[in-house]
Amino acid sequence: MRWILFRAPASELFPQRRGRSFPWVFPGAVLGSILALGGFAQMSQPPSRPPKPLIVPEANPTPDANDRMVMRQNKLQDRNFDLANTERLHQMVKASDMLQTIAIALKAEADKPGPLSENEIRKAETIERLAHIVKERMTITIAPN
Fold this sequence. Notes:
This protein has helices spanning 10-13, 25-43, 65-110, 118-139. The protein is rod-shaped. The chain has a domain at 65-139. Helix 3 (65-110) runs antiparallel to helix 4. The mean pLDDT is 78. The chain is mostly helical.
């Protein structure tokens, strides 16, 4: 037996659509995808104009070379005054300690019965001089003009 092949007509192989046809769907989809990709590309870029500063530059100018030199000199002068005050305080504490030591020794010698010796009088004069020096150093403070 022999097989007989029948071919269908071309209209049956590729039937035409019946009802609505949308010829703009494919171009619309291409255009939409291009626009979406363009939107994503713009989101990753920084803004085109620089942001407005919070502080107006005219209100807070940066110091020039002369101003920086003056500020540096003032800072060094303040540091020197601080060092001088620290040294003065150290000398005052040392003199106060010496004054206290001599006063304790004089008190111990003066508590003994009998007349004052020449050594005790010298210690009293030394105490008087040291007390005067400590008093002067307490009132003098080295400070900038």
